# Entry
Amino acid sequence: MGGSIEQSRLLMVAQALETAIREVNISEGIVAGAIKTDSGTVNGNCGGSYSYTISYDDVTGAFNGTFNFSSYCNDGSTISGSVSASGQINLNTRVIMQFNMSTTSLIFTSGNDSFTISGSFNIIINGSTATVTMNILLKDNATGKIYWLQNHTLTITRAATYVDGQISGRYYHPDYGYITISTTTPFRINNGSKWPFQGVLIVAGMAGSASGNTSARLTVLSATQYQVVADTDGDGAFDDYDSGPKNWSSL
# Structure
């Protein structure tokens, strides 16, 4: 996994989970003031499905339950495994507006990438925007290496033909230590695409020889290319490294 480049794949994880939660539509109970149970199955837009069983309070909207993903596919990304969940239902619209989940073995696959997720997600949905906060470990199933996302937040805003993603938080790499991540311009990804066509991401690391934090900036050039420049001595200038245009497809 490639540090700042990997954030686009993490955006796909969050987007797939957020889409799954939006598909749940709770049946309205007949008798108010009681704990009710609801269950169902939701098909993915490119195959697979997930099933859910939840119990909820028809007065407060609080719920808990389980979600079982069976090769649930959303825009080319696939999820398998089970999660326990709790949260809040909007009793007027009968949809989930807050979702807390924990898992020990959720499998996420996209293209040639496959990794196992353990930890917790918090998803808050407000209209077309969802905020996903993750404290998770990701095991790369090809290399066995484990990566840690601490208080890693993705804000996803959906439009008719694209999705905007803003990122912040701390990312721990097993070989290189940690970096702090933030987007100064949101990643924008066309529906059904793997890579963004615009966006700027800043990563900051340890102090350099000039006493400031070392950092790098990834700029999306197009849906096919990106560029990375770096400040490796901590003097505040991104003039120590320039990758030039690079192809997303080479990752």
Observations:
- Confidence is low (pLDDT under 50) at residues 1-5.
- The CA atoms of residues 231 and 240 lie 5 Å apart.
